[in-house]
């Protein structure tokens, strides 16, 4: 695990990787909305605790967690001195990685928020 | 050119003369309006948007006067409908969004140390489109023809021509035109932030304003197109009777609500984030320290942008959707409070940690945050669906949205006005008048809108032109009216302060002692933007980099000269802002203005059903665009030029290194989003209506597959043409372009064959097939025009294997076209037209 995490330092970080966690939230959200809309309209009911929904949610959370883990590693890249506000390669990497980490946190919570109603509501009324 | 050379004052003076000559604005009573410099376009834009704001504010005052007492008859119900519709529409489309674009057009080049934005003529085009469309929409009220269906124009009230008149068309077509200009501004701003930063300004050193602008411009790209798609369906129904929102013929009015609010909710954040961005600039200045939590602010901006696209159904809680769907949107609506809170705490922490210099802009910032937070808290309340069912369409909502928009957009902009006025005019505004205006407005806002919470909870519905005395809300309404006049008085003080500005002396340079790049501006500013493009090593270079201002002024950084007599700026890489090329910028021209007038004529003539004239205007618009484009992507007289410090930069770039490629890519993202709005419509009908398409023949599979094959042939032809052209096989590339054009035109006819025997007026199924097909064949036609244009460029010697930007740009278009054609023809040809 540790060796694997070390390799995270070598991964490329761009504006695209920054938006991976919130994009996962967006896909999960869209998936939840469409799933509910189609199953309510076509089948007429929203089965309590549908397996597909649960699996989708777990996948989303795992992807966000992974993105967060990689970002956490990268945000601790050693080298330049704190406070890491300089125009160096490492500080730019640390900034993008730390922002990705923060977005992972927000996206994780937001996915949980989206999943919660399914625990409470079981039908299409 | 070494550092040493700049020690010579005569050289510097000669450079300044050359720069001054190159950046000289056009003069003459007409030609001065053909200017494209961001300094001037931005100011016109800002003043125009400010004027529309005052106009819409007067409309609000008339409404409040009507509502001051029960059973009032100052205005008729019909006029009142026009008043509230135009007030809301103007504040959103003609003030809040354009104001953000206007301010960004002024500030962004200064913040990024660029001479101008990458496409100055596009900014000018956006401005003229905005002015024309804005005057058209707002002027309608003087002819008793203003839209009257509420700013979100719900059908069927607005689609039935017997229930609503010309106003609905004016709204749809006039504002569609303005949406085009918003997308144009978004393209300009995204490319500006990503590609026009000064060397060294890596992503982590970018001013937070630029981060916010990047995020907001991307939001515009995904939020506005669904509305454009909705507008298209809406006008098809009004002008041609295609039943997209008519339940009797299989349509569904809820589709409009979806498309409108997929735009409408992100819109709230599109107008809020840029105002908050002003705080991110002024708070460090008045705290005299770096902003705390830079990545946290980026989290807030990006997080809010994403979550804001998961909120739209909270405007539709009362439409009878399944509770589980409502709950998803309720959850996202609660979640968005997290990033919003984070940025407010970051601001508070910065002030706490700094040495605060209490000033007028800071007063506006802190006061507006207080108002915004109240609106945010009622927002969390109405995000709870059961509470919303009680408060929906009452004055409680009116109170909530005005607290949010005044605290989150209007007052921050006024704060920004006091902060940045010295940057634009070189003069400070009056602190005394500014503070007086603030307190009058602050009391006015609360007196106007706080009682509305109560009148709403007492049961006063929004959008009523009067109410009975028995409801017992007379005194609450009177208080609101008094407050609105107080607020207007505050605005008046502010306007007088602005009007007195020309009589005041110039202020010192950088009067607030700010640390960010835009404050390099000199009170007696030149038109060249920045004397030399600096090397950035800090987020606050004026504070942190030694002798920074003097070095910029003495031209010791990059591009201190205009040897070839051209307007130029530096293009850098996206992540690390390494210089990659120098581009030549557009110079003053009548082309943007004429193109805007021609395009405006298309929309305005369509409103009055003058289709032939409208079609002629469309052809003129196309001709103008081609005329405009012909001068672009020019082959430079030499391959590269020195920019100082021994660096040489190419003068030509193509593909992803070129701003034009990015502009095409970004425009096509918006185009694809609009298209996905139409596709959403198709699948929405299929989901909701089990009888979708039942009893109506579809296009079959043969014609769509044929059209798809030809479309893909056109795409492959272009892609292969690009490859062989780059290898020097110019003749083969030309033949391939001709073949691609023929395939595109053939796909157009094959596409139209899909529509044989389908009557779009009969039912929503043939109607949506028509719309998807028309959308696709129009794109085929545009693709063919691009292919012929590129061919002409090649024949005219304006495109060669080493200078092939045109061909690379149209290939991007063709990628998106291939996607569009695939989705359309597979959907209409293969997807089961009847429900599962």
From TrEMBL, chain A:
The chain crosses the membrane at residues 15-37, 49-73, 93-121. The keyword Transmembrane helix applies. Keywords: Membrane, Transmembrane, Transmembrane helix. This is Heme/copper-type cytochrome/quinol oxidase subunit 2. It comes from Sphingomonas abaci.
TrEMBL record, chain B:
Keywords: Cell membrane, Copper, Electron transport, Heme, Iron, Membrane, Metal-binding, Respiratory chain, Translocase, Transmembrane, Transmembrane helix, Transport. The chain crosses the membrane at residues 42-63, 83-112, 124-146, 170-194, 206-228, 268-287, 294-314, 326-350, 362-385, 397-421, 433-454, 474-500, 611-630, 661-685, 731-752, 764-789, 810-831. The keyword GTP-binding does not apply. InterPro entries: Cyt_c_oxase-like_su1_dom, Cyt_c_oxase-like_su1_sf, Cyt_C_Oxase_1, Cyt_c_Oxase_su1_BS, Cyt_c_oxidase_su1_bac, Cyt_c_oxidase_su3-like_sf, Cyt_c_oxidase_su3_a-hlx. It is an enzyme of class 7 (translocase). Pathway: Energy metabolism; oxidative phosphorylation. It is found in: Cell membrane. Pfam families: COX1. It is a multi-pass membrane protein. It catalyses: 4 Fe(II)-[cytochrome c] + O2 + 8 H(+)(in) = 4 Fe(III)-[cytochrome c] + 2 H2O + 4 H(+)(out). Its EC number is 7.1.1.9. One of its GO terms (cellular component) is plasma membrane. GO terms for biological process: electron transport coupled proton transport; oxidative phosphorylation; respiratory electron transport chain. Residues 17-519 form the Cytochrome oxidase subunit I profile domain. GO terms for molecular function: cytochrome-c oxidase activity; heme binding; metal ion binding. Belongs to the heme-copper respiratory oxidase family. This is cytochrome-c oxidase. It comes from Sphingomonas abaci.
